[in-house]
Fold:
Amino acid sequence: MSTGVPSKKKSKDKIPVFLTYQGKQEEADIVNNSYLSFDKSICVNGNGENLFFFGDNFDALLYMINNGYKEKVNLIYIDPPFATSSTFVNRKQEKAYSDSLCGGEYVEFLRKRLILLYQLLSNDGSIYLHLDNKMAFTMKIIMDEIFGEENCRAFITRKKCSTKNYTKNTYGNVSDYIMFYTKSSKYTWNRPYDPWELDKMIEQYPCVDGKGRRYKKVPVHAPGVRNGETGKEWRGKLPPTGKHWQYTPEKLDELDEAGEIYWSPTGNPRRMVFCDPSKGIPVQDIWLNYRDSVNQAQKTTGYPTEKNYEMLKLIVNASSNPGDIVLDCFAGSGTTLGAAFESGRKWIGVDNSPQSLDAILNRFTNRMEVYGDYVSPVQESFVQCSFDGFDEKCQFDIWCTTHSQQTANDIFNKLKG
Ligand SMILES: C[S@@+](CC[C@H](N)C(=O)[O-])C[C@H]1O[C@@H](n2cnc3c(N)ncnc32)[C@H](O)[C@@H]1O
Structure:
């Protein structure tokens, strides 16, 4: 791997890139749109901290903007439909949602919601957008338009499933993508770590010092010529051609005195970077350990496209603090909401599918089931279960539009038995 010399060209000199398509609305028109109002009609013994909006997220986001949530949300994770032209059914073979938009229509649908989400996000907040190769690269341009290219913190590749035995003449498709943007350069960040595995530690920190500490050797110079202190001679040596010292000679002296400079037999200095086994390995932008639930023994809600719970816990813990508000406006089975609750965050979920509300109620009443080899069409335990556990597990309010109130009531009453 080689590192380029950073360019001095200022980002303001860049020609901005925009996506053009038919039907692209002005941002101001989107934010000033009319919307259906949500009445606080069904209360699951909530205390106003956790809210579920049952209805179209365009209405719900506008409602929130106009009802006290502007710049109040600390973290957003969304996993919208991926433009697959498919209908998704749950474990009971009931239709959960259809994913039918494509092309410019899809882009505008999602762009409108992202513009509203920008309004809701706090100044130190973060947003994660989960997509696959169909729309991720198009939507990256839209994310840059709304949140600013400079606020793109990572473009994560995730291994979503096990290796496939493809019959098609191409590579097995096992990846999807998560874009991580922030609203500004000052944002909440609790660096996540994976635990060390000995072979990885040996691979990455191959050397051992006299005290038994593992370390690796890294260059003390960086690309680019400098005329200041870092371009001068240190201990009788100039930096290699086209490079400069990473530190001033004074700082290099300090590092040497602290025993952090390795001198090769030919007299070349390198920096010794020590492994801190207590911390683990900082999580990188390729995620291999967060596949969605395919394991027959794993408990799930049975909602289609349910995402990996541990992955959501990682995101929630990295980009928010206890007490913060976490929002998922394509909530599905409520994976984000569950992870936020478990980590001591407040949550706001939105979805317009009755099956989603059903799955979320099941998630918070501990009625998730193992996938199993066979799917039972009638789940007796669903109607017989007592309703008592609800208040202990997670309290939340369900807010509905007048259109959706009856459906929400039916689902809620079904659960109560
Ligand atoms: C891919 S699923 C989300 C799955 C979720 N991340 C999970 O772990 O279960 C997308 C969700 O977006 C919801 N959805 C799609 N369009 C919507 C809209 N306009 N308003 C609200 N929800 C919508 C669907 O009902 C579906 O539940």
Q: What stands out?
A: The CA atoms of residues 327 and 348 lie 5 Å apart. The first strand starts at residue 39 and ends at 44.
